[in-house]
């Protein structure tokens, strides 16, 4: 009985890992489809940790423009993920 239970638990967690990896792949695919500037701003701010003020200086664009790119990127990603995994969003 214990071996049976362990097999079921292992199978469940393996499936969860597979699903998580699939969602990460989908997210990366969606990020790759972003317009160039939105992708650059999203990666620099959310993945590499730059503050909007730092990005503004680095990219020579206003903080409001950075906010706009970020907002558009999130909306695009939400839509892209919804199409690929409707239960996610």
User: What structural category do the secondary elements indicate?
Assistant: mainly alpha
Q: Can you summarize the main beta sheet? A: none
Number of helices: 4
Oligomer: single chain
Parts with pLDDT < 50 across at least 5 consecutive residues: none
Number of strands: 0
Morphology call: elongated
C-alpha Rg (nearest Å): 18 Å
The proportion of strand residues reads under 5%
Can you give the helix content as a percent range? Answer: over 70%
List SSEs in N-to-C order: HHHH
Distance between the termini: 38 Å
On the 0 to 100 scale, the average pLDDT is: 84
Topology:
Elements: H1 2-33, H2 36-47, H3 52-59, H4 63-84
Helix pairs in contact: 1-4, 2-4, 3-4
Structure in words:
The protein is mostly helical and 89 residues long. Helices cover 83% and strands 0% of the residues. It is built from four helices and no strands. Helix 1 crosses helix 4, helix 2 crosses helix 4 and helix 3 (52-59) crosses helix 4 (63-84). The longest helix has 32 residues, at 2-33. The termini are far apart. 8% of the residues are buried.
